[in-house]
Amino acid sequence: MRALLFVAVATLLAGCNNPPPPSINNAVAAPARQYEAAQLGRGKALFQANCAVCHGAGAQGAFTWRVAGPDGKYLPPPLNGTGHAWHHPKAALKQTIRQGTLALGGNMPPWQDKLSEQDIEDLIAWFQSLWPDEVYQAWWEIDQRALQARR
Ligand code: HEC
Question: How many angstroms separate the alpha carbon of residue 27 from the centre of ligand 1?
Fold first, then answer.
């Protein structure tokens, strides 16, 4: 499984036409993750209360999340590191959570009126804490590039 992921990541990066900015060195390792237990506790509780009904208690998503249903909509994807949430920089993950996907023809409700910025940070910290290191590393590189592009 890990080997497969590496192949997938390598293929993705090899197929990328936009080389990362020169200041980003792909060999740089993401800083070691250090989550505060209190933050993970808040994130987990928020997830169980609001998100688990769709994404699963372990953030494992729906088994058939890759396949659109008869209505063209998708079932909730995993957020535990086995899906593709790592393709999205932090800003994009936050936007999906804030705005949901109903307006885009998807199935996820918006949370911006129910959850604070801190709640959303805590939620992301919790589900990212489930990710294997190599998934987190791939996400971190994408996030760094997005941050760099904004400056
Ligand atoms: C009613 C079901 C439902 C609920 C509740 C829900 N989601 Fe989702 N979520 C989805 C679906 C379905 C998608 C896939 C996008 C689409 O097609 O709508 C999704 C996508 C996402 C994504 C993007 C993942 C990716 O791989 O791109 C994130 C992040 C996310 N949800 C986080 C959350 C969080 C955090 C909560 C709780 C605050 C939550 N979701 C609650 C159904 C739900």
Answer: 31
